[in-house]
Amino acid sequence: MLKKGWVVILSLLMVFAVACSNKEEASPSASSSAPASSEAPASSAAASPEASPSASEKPLPKVAFVYIGVAGDGGWTYQHDLGRLEMEKEFGIKSTVVENVPEGPDAERVFEDLAKDNDIIIGTSFGYMDSMAAVAAKHPDKIFLHNTGYKTAENLATYMGREYQSGYLVGMTAGKMTKNNKIGYVAAFPIPEVVYTINAFTLGAQSVNPDIEVSVVWSNTWFDPTVERQAAVSLLDKGVDVLAAYQDSPASIQAAAEKGVWGIGNDSDMSRFAPETYLTNPVWDWGPYYIDTVKKYMDGTWKTEAYWGHMSTGITDIAPFGKNVPQDVKDLVEAKKKEIIDGTFEVFTGPITDASGKVHGEAGKPLSDEEVLSTNWFVKGVSGTIPQ
């Protein structure tokens, strides 16, 4: 069961491409493969909760969140919960939260129950996709937001951020900090989102240190500290002197800290778990997106979309650098971050050579979104396999 995944994604990308090419002709009620959008959520100044809505504005909605884990995971769910709380504060509302909901039939029952009493229902796990699509079809008067998925409908939208941009910057940091050029990476599941983030991380590291080798071990978990620690130790035993992780728990960077190895977490600022050896990591800020959704619901402008936010929107970023990261490294990474934000630098610009020697992309031309979203190969310099 996956929080985020790529089951049948390659075939669906063909549908995505057709949908994009026919965007102008498509009906507003089209139910699949909405074109991706990277526009920034509009800034919102919410009306006072006590104020009566105008004739053209709906009352404050009832909003419900479904989490794959718990807010205390310190990572993925924690960041979503911060965004939820930011939304509550903005509008003065109290949302409903259901934690630890497994994917599958149980999830569909939860979404069905929530749809009876809420106006906006948000699911933060890839594996909720089919359940949300089924429930959305039965409740056309409700809005459903699915994080990381690819199925859309008139009342079902998807949303995500371009975390590979943050991953590149974190990779630059790792490349400057390693002494033996051996970097370990504990990866969750072999899906495009994780694979292309590892690739971006490696390209970032290679941009400052061409001799880098990144060794990948799969944990096949999103939040299982015991398993993730074991995977981390297996890499530490191989002598890596920087350890990164695409997980929801801080288990990997804690294991690295015990060995005196630099650590890189994921999703949220994890510096508190390994203050002496922490470098940085990609982070999320979901609050503006949730606030924008509520505002659009209230003023009647909400429309379905497949949102894939750019770093310039703030939806993805890097955490503050650890206290032992040198200033010259910070300055180098911050300069590249500015280039990404202002659009003068694209992470996946061809030609890119993969681990098998195959070249992807044309010289000087960025890979298309479809190509990035269907990534099933590692770049040259990554040691590891991608299970099929």
Roughly how many Å is the radius of gyration? 21 Å
Give the averaged pLDDT, no decimals. 88
Q: Which structural class fits the helix and strand makeup?
A: alpha/beta
What is the C-level CATH assignment of the largest domain?
A: Alpha Beta
Q: From the coordinates shown, what is the CATH architecture of the largest domain?
A: 3-Layer(aba) Sandwich
Shape assignment? globular
What does this structure look like?
There is one protein chain. The chain has 388 residues and is of the alpha/beta class. The chain folds into two domains: 183 residues, Rossmann fold; 187 residues, Rossmann fold (3-Layer(aba) Sandwich). Helices cover 36% and strands 15% of the residues. The protein has eleven helices and 16 strands. The strands form four sheets. Strands 1-12-6-5-4-2-3 form a seven-stranded parallel sheet, with helices on one face. Helix 2 packs across helix 9, helix 5 packs parallel to helix 6 and helix 5 runs antiparallel to helix 10. The longest helix has 17 residues. The radius of gyration is 21 Å and the shape is globular. The two termini are 15 Å apart.
